[in-house]
Amino acid sequence: MIVALISEGMKNIMFRENVIKKPEAAEKIQREVKDVDFTMSCDNNNKKGVVSMLFSGERIRLRKMSSEDVSIYHKWRNDIEVMQFTNPSLDVFTYAETEKFVNSITESHNSKGYMIEEVKTDKPIGVTSLINIDYGNRNAECIIDIGDKDYWSKGFGREAFKLLLDFSFNELNLHKIYLRVFSFNERAIKLYQNLGFYEEGKLKEQLYRDGAWHDIIFMGVLKRNYKE
Fold first, then answer.
1. Rounded to whole angstroms, how far apart are CA atoms 225 and 206?
2. Which CATH class for the 8-16+51-177 domain?
3. Domain ranges across the chain
């Protein structure tokens, strides 16, 4: 399973509003990004458009996350086997809590959430997002989770992650993408390294899981180091 850390325990930090005091350049970027999102939303089923090409790979596509996705995400969020790789606080969540969490992404001006769909079946298999987008300093945190376990270890996470990074660097013109990952998730760490991510630091023994302490590793990649 290829995942990057999404810390529900720290979501108040992860999803806080970034205040940009010099709005002219940042507002221009945000207007352009909204135009891309609007086009993508209206053209979800058009495989031939330029925008569709940006969000479609050989086997999967990305589409904007919406309130209609709460149900499937709620199922994944309450699957301990899925969340053990992404959530430092394993718990059972109510539907209302999941709905609030999804809305915190879809309604935020500095977050972009996408459902990962299999092209062949139109089936949602996971979610990937950019959060804490800083338009002024051109960086963002990313997360990815393949929630459908039938699609684990088959390269779908890698394909989806590359689509998100391509969009981040080539369309949003971000300078840097960063993420958090559990130290025991060696498969994900290897993938990130192959894409050009490097370790920036770690929180030592931050996570207690399965009777042992584990680090939370911070990794990042600059646009010029991204290995497409």
1. 28
2. alpha beta
3. 8-16+51-177
